[in-house]
Design brief:
Shape: flat
Strand content: under 5%
Order of helices and strands: HHHH
Largest sheet: none
Number of strands: 0
Oligomer: single chain
Amino acid sequence: MFRLRAELLDRLKILAARDNRSLNNYVETILMDVAFNTPNAATIAAMEEAKDDANLTPVDMTNYESFLKSTC
């Protein structure tokens, strides 16, 4: 057993209902994704390579309009 803020619990209930799932199943699935979704060595290497690639154009994520402009 553990405690959650009422606002968070309410939000999780809404999201679970939207996916037509029980609250328990919804929270368990989220926790499983976080706990067991670790990138493998090849993915980590590709992420490092992409981070160091000078040919890549950064994407501005500060707001939606900036994001759209930076993707053109």
